Amino acid sequence: MGISGQGGSVGLDSKREKQREYSRQHYLRNKEALQERHRQWHVDNRDRAKQRARDYYIANAERLKRQNSAWYRANKDKTRAQKKRWREANAERWRLLQVANSSLRRARLASVLVIPFTTDQLIDKWKYWGGLCWICREAPATCWDHVKPVARGGPHCLANLRPACKPCNSSKNARWPYG
Fold first, then answer.
1. How many Cβ atoms from other residues are within 10 Å of residue 168's Cβ?
2. What domains, with CATH codes, occur in the chain?
3. pTM (2 decimals)?
4. Could you report the per-residue pLDDT of 89-101, keeping only the tens digit for each?
């Protein structure tokens, strides 16, 4: 029995507090080395770290959503400024994302097959075509064209997307096969 007669809870609390204080001091003394070790673990165990994060999110989804919403409401200006800085620093990437998202939206509204792909894959495809229209091969591309049009049941997938200029994309419209 402890001092208070409750099974040693008083002694246990002070022991826990001493351990916490020791941990805090140890972290402060070895902060850089511990942070580097942590970073290296994440590099070496990328898949495991992602799975841990996924599992944690699934187990705590509602609480995390509430916390994130509350943080966003309290920091709207900060978040908007940060997003604006990112858009300005990544103008080309932002433009490609906007164009790709509008294509995805149209595909979902048409209820066609949507096969996900990454932004990097999309950017690589844009670079492959040199940022030029796939139809006229002269004008700079400003939008994504579904080779087999979504209106004709074409899927929204990387293989069916090509960069196009607005005049060529508009004149092609929903023709399939194009030629």
1. 19
2. 9-74 (no CATH), 88-172 (1.10.30)
3. 0.57
4. 999 889 888 888 8
